[in-house]
Amino acid sequence: QVHLVESGGGSVQAGGSLRLSCEASGPHARSVSMGWFRQAPGKEREWVAGLDVDGVTTYADSVKERFAISKDAAKNILYLQMERLKSDDAAMYYCAAAMMRTVRAGRAYGMDYWGKGTLVTIFS
Questions:
Q1: What is the DSSP code (8-state) at residue 43?
Q2: Residue 109 has pLDDT above 90, yes or no
Q3: Scanning 16, 29, 49, 76, which has its CA 20 to 30 A from the CA of 23?
Q4: Read out DSSP for 59-116?
Q5: Residue 115 has pLDDT above 90, yes or no
Q6: How many helices (H) and strands (E) are present in the chain, helices listed first?
Q7: How far apart, in Å, do the first and last CA atoms of the chain sit?
Q8: Of residues 17, 14, 52, 15, the one with CA closest to residue 33
């Protein structure tokens, strides 16, 4: 079982930065691959970034070079540092975890645990 709680969302001006956090707890929290997903109003949920069990990071093309996923292993907190934010980045952001070694596998078979999300809005 893994419990995920996101925080850090808010309203930011286009071009600005924001850091999201996801605190993971539970007996399996340290042995899962983790990722960030987002869903904008009227759109399907999309994958944003992933962190595999062995530390490999992956990104959607739309956020490469602007977003960075990382983890504080001691605190078991997953982060998403977002830079040069655009209006298209506005969405509800979700943290998710998979009982798989890679996020790619988790995405293929379904992520096992989800947080409730944190909202990011962009103003110009």
A1: S
A2: no
A3: 16
A4: E-TTTTTTEEEEEETTTTEEEEEE-S--GGG-EEEEEEEESSSSHHHHHHH--SEE--
A5: yes
A6: 1, 11
A7: 40
A8: 52
